[in-house]
Structure formats: C-alpha cells, structure tokens
C-alpha cells in the first residue's frame, strides 16, 4: 500500500470508528443491492421494528418468501418517481398494506412513547469501500444509509497527499450517473433518486454537491470555519504520531 492510500485508510477508519461509537452500524459492500441502490437488511429490519410489523405480516401472507423483493421493487419505483427525500419524508404505498413510512424524525413531544420508539428504530449505517457497480470494480470510500436508503457518499483525501480538490475531480471524472461505456444508469449517483448529497473531504476541508453531472458538477463548501477563516480547525497530532481529526 502506498503512502497516499495508507493515510486515506487511516482517515477512513477514524471516521468509521467515531460513527460506530455513536451508534451507527458498520456495513459491508457484499450486502448492498447495487441494482436497486438499497441495503436490504436494514429496509426489512426498519419496517419490522418501527411499529409496521403488521404491514410486513400482511405482505408476507400475500408474497411469502418473495416479500422483501416485492417491497424493494415497489420502493425502487417510488424512488424513481418521487426521489429519496420525498420517500424519506412521506414513505411509499404498496398494494396489500397501504403506506410504509421510511423514517421517523426526533419527537417534539417527549411524552409520546410510540413516536420515541419509532425514532429509536431508525437504522443509521456506514459502508466503507462500497462497490456500487454490479460488474465493475468501482468503489466509493464511504456511503451513509438511513433505514436502507442511501443518503450520502464521501470521497476522502488527506492533506498529506491530496486535497479536497482531488476528491472533487474524482466525482467529476469517475463518479458518473450514466456509465459512458455500458450506458447503465447508476441509481446511487442519480440526482433525486440516489444519495442526497456527495461530499469531497480532506482532513481540513469538506465540499458538497447535490447533483453529479460530470465536469458540470458544482461543489459548495461544507466547513465549520477556522477562527473566522475558511476551512476547519486543524487536527491534533497524538503521541503515537497519528492525527486526531476535528469533528
């Protein structure tokens, strides 16, 4: 492994470890459905544990062992028609059980125990090195999911080797919503239907784009600021020589 890859792997592991410490689940690319851009395990678990288990049972009586596939197919159509944000906000309808809600926001009324339990049922997952193409070895450094739906992708660089600009170039040149060779539409990278936001991130800067469009992809800063200046606060070097990144 070259020095650049080593630094990026350390940065990636640091982010993943911090997320897992805060309750995120660590995922693996092999469990990702690249054709539908979904994490099936979390979709099923969310429906069963968010007070919608009766709806799942109705669907199972109708579809048996094909229930998850039927749900994913209907969800895929809803994502293509409504987009990820709308599906997260409004859910999607499916014959045989009606509306399936796809997320629960933090409750304003802390006395509503049912809403609190649904909120706790939300599944946040991070998948490192997600291979998103079914036939080619394309991988994104980090992909974030909510209840099985992809909401963000991240390409990482470190200031020791490359800047956030290099990550932006990677999105513009290599992360295309339409594969120029096969003409396959990439659901994960498609505007509205796929991940909501794409981050180009170094240990000092974060840039974001909501629509990937090749060389026309436009990035905006997503930084905390650094004492009134651009960027983010510098990380601290720990005694073992590794870097503690700001969060």
What report would you give on this structure?
By secondary structure, the chain is an alpha+beta fold. Helix content is 34%, strand content 19%. The strands form 3 sheets. Strands 1-4-5-6-7-8-9 form a 7-stranded mixed β-sheet, with helices on both faces. Strands 2-3 form a two-stranded antiparallel ribbon. Strand 4 and strand 5 form a beta hairpin. It is globular, with a radius of gyration of 19 Å. The model is unreliable at 237-242 (pLDDT under 50).
What's the short version?
This protein is of the alpha+beta class. Helix content is 34%, strand content 19%.
Distance between the termini: 27 Å
- Mean pLDDT comes to 89
Strand content: 15-25%
Number of DSSP E strands: 11
How do the SSEs run, as a string of H and E?
A: HEHHHHEEHEEEHEEEEE
Largest sheet: 7 strands, mixed
Helical content (DSSP H or I, runs of 4+): 25-40%
Across the major sheet, the strand order is: 1-4-5-6-7-8-9
From the alpha carbons, calculate the radius of gyration and give it in angstroms.
Answer: 19 Å
Structural class, from helix and strand content? Answer: alpha+beta
Shape descriptor: globular
Number of helices: 7
Ranges where pLDDT stays below 50 over 5 or more residues in a row are: 237-242
């Amino acid at each position: 492994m070259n020095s650049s890859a080593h630094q990026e792997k350390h940065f990636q592991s640091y982010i993943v470890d911090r997320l897992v410490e805060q309750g995120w689940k660590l995922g693996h690319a092999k469990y990702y459905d690249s054709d539908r851009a979904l994490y099936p395990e979390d979709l099923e678990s969310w429906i069963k544990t968010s007070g919608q288990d009766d709806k799942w049972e109705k669907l199972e009586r109708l579809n048996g062992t094909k229930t998850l596939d039927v749900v994913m197919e209907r969800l895929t159509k809803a994502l293509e028609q409504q987009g990820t944000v709308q599906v997260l906000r409004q859910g999607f309808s499916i014959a045989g059980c009606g509306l399936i809600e796809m997320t629960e926001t933090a409750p304003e009324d802390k006395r509503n125990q049912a809403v609190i339990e649904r909120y706790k049922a939300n599944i946040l997952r991070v998948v490192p090195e997600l291979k998103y193409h079914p036939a080619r070895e394309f991988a994104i450094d980090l992909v974030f999911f909510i209840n099985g739906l992809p909401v963000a992708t991240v390409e990482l660089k470190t200031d020791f080797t490359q800047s956030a600009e290099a990550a932006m170039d990677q999105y513009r040149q290599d992360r295309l919503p339409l594969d120029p060779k096969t003409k396959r539409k990439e659901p994960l990278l498609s505007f509205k239907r796929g991940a909501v936001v794409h981050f180009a991130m170094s240990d000092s800067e974060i840039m974001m784009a909501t629509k990937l469009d090749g060389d026309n992809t436009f990035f905006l800063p997503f930084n905390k600021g650094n004492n009134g200046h651009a960027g983010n606060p510098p990380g601290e070097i720990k005694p073992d020589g590794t870097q503690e990144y700001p969060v």
